[in-house]
């Protein structure tokens, strides 16, 4: 299949790239699907994954509940093909108030860390110095809070061990005793670390508005490394998802502009393919504004960074799994293996009448190229 797919892409790829957005559907392709965790009595949601440098060890954390709830933890030693039982975690992980997020960081001396955030007030962080074998308790990173902390963490060119982290808040959690304004003002924040993510500075405001409720920032660096792009959920549903850019490592940001319908949705997470395209996984389209036939489902978008800059439709929109709920699914983990396989992991109502559970889908972009070429 990969050789066939590659041949078809060489023959037809330019035609596909030049045409209109192609819709593909993998929802019933169970050969690609791997169960990470399921519990008929409990809601399992909002996972984050991390692939370590050996390209076989993968970590996954997720709450037992919608956002808030005890943090559950599993580990795979075969790149997500099979998963361990739930592993023991520090006692404070049971007190998590929100979605956990995982990241690899490296300090100025080359020391490697795995860090995990848990949001609301205050934002707390746990860390591991041995690739997730042992963990610290959750500890506040400062006297501030936020929602989906941290949605993105990105190394900066300003120095070794320097990182940028992004999150948002609606006024309720940024400080102790805070109250939400009327009308609601949604604020995007950034914070910096200069010690490999071990400590974080007080947050700075990127954008605040009562008209556009921009949240869940998903950061992607340009192929040449010179620019940062951030895709944003628009939670008031008055507009499509938005995008902002920075040409100075996050010191300043452009004004938001709307993304096309093909990228309209929530909690965008992206990585580059082996041939330089972008794969972005997210929850498609808000339920009240049907901008896609896949609205409310788990999807992935294939396009280029130039498509983001030009707010162009892209190449493919692929339904990974249909959701038996109007909207509740898809806070995705996105990992790429050396053989170009993407391991995409998220939660959703994958079984009618049952609580959400955690699922992985595996695909190669060249397989999508072959499917699209045959469809053409």
- Give the C-alpha Rg: 20 Å
How much beta, percentage-wise? 35-45%
Name the helix and strand elements from N-terminus to C-terminus, one letter apiece: HEEEEEEEEEEEEEEEEEEEEHEEEEH
- Please estimate the helix content: under 10%
Unreliable stretches: 1-18
Features of the shown structure:
38% strand; mainly beta; single chain; four-stranded antiparallel sheet; globular
Task: Report what the structure shows.
By secondary structure, the chain is mainly β. It has helices at residues 2-18, 305-310, 365-375, and strands spanning 22-25, 33-37, 48-51, 58-63, 71-76, 100-106, 112-118, 124-128, 139-140, 147-155, 163-169, 186-193, 204-209, 214-221, 228-234, 242-246, 257-258, 265-272, 278-284, 298-303, 316-321, 333-336, 342-348, 357-363. The chain has a five-stranded mixed beta sheet with strand order 1-21-20-19-18. It has a four-stranded antiparallel beta sheet with strand order 2-24-23-22. The chain has a four-stranded antiparallel beta sheet with strand order 6-7-8-9, with no helix packed on it. A hairpin with a 7-residue loop joins strand 4 (58-63) and strand 5. Helix 1 (2-18) packs across helix 3. 47% of the residues are buried.
């Amino acid at each position: 299949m990969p050789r066939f797919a590659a041949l078809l892409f060489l023959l037809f790829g330019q035609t596909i790239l030049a045409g209109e957005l192609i819709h593909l559907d993998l929802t019933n392709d169970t050969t690609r699907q791997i169960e990470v965790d399921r519990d008929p009595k409990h809601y399992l949601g909002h996972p984050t994954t991390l692939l370590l440098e050996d390209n076989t060890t993968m970590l996954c954390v997720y709450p037992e509940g919608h956002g808030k709830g005890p943090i559950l933890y599993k580990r795979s030693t075969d790149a997500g093909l099979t998963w361990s039982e739930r592993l023991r975690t520090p006692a404070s992980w049971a007190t998590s108030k929100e979605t956990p997020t995982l990241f690899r960081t490296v300090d100025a001396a080359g020391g490697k860390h795995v860090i995990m955030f848990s949001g609301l007030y205050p934002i707390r962080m746990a860390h591991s110095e041995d690739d997730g074998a042992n963990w610290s308790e959750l500890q506040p990173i400062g006297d501030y809070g936020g929602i989906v902390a941290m949605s993105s963490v990105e190394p900066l060119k300003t120095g070794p061990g320097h990182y940028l982290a992004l999150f948002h808040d609606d006024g309720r959690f940024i400080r102790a005793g805070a109250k939400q304004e009327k009308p609601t003002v949604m604020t995007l924040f950034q914070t910096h670390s200069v010690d490999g993510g071990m400590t974080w500075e007080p947050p700075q405001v990127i954008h605040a508005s009562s008209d556009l409720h921009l949240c869940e920032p998903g950061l992607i660096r340009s192929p040449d490394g010179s620019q940062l792009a951030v895709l944003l959920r628009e939670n008031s549903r008055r507009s499509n998802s938005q995008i902002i850019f920075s040409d100075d490592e996050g010191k300043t940001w452009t004004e938001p502009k709307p993304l096309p319908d093909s990228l309209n949705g929530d909690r965008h997470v992206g990585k580059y393919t082996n041939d330089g395209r972008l794969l972005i996984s997210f929850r498609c389209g808000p339920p009240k504004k049907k901008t896609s036939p896949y609205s409310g489902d788990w999807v992935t978008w294939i396009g280029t960074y130039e498509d983001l800059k030009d707010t162009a439709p892209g190449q493919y929109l692929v339904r990974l799994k249909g959701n038996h709920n109007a909207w509740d699914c898809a806070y995705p983990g996105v990992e790429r293996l050396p053989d170009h396989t993407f391991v995409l992991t998220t939660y959703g109502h994958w079984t009618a009448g049952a609580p959400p559970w955690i699922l992985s889908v595996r695909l190669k972009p060249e397989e999508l190229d072959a499917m699209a070429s045959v469809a053409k």
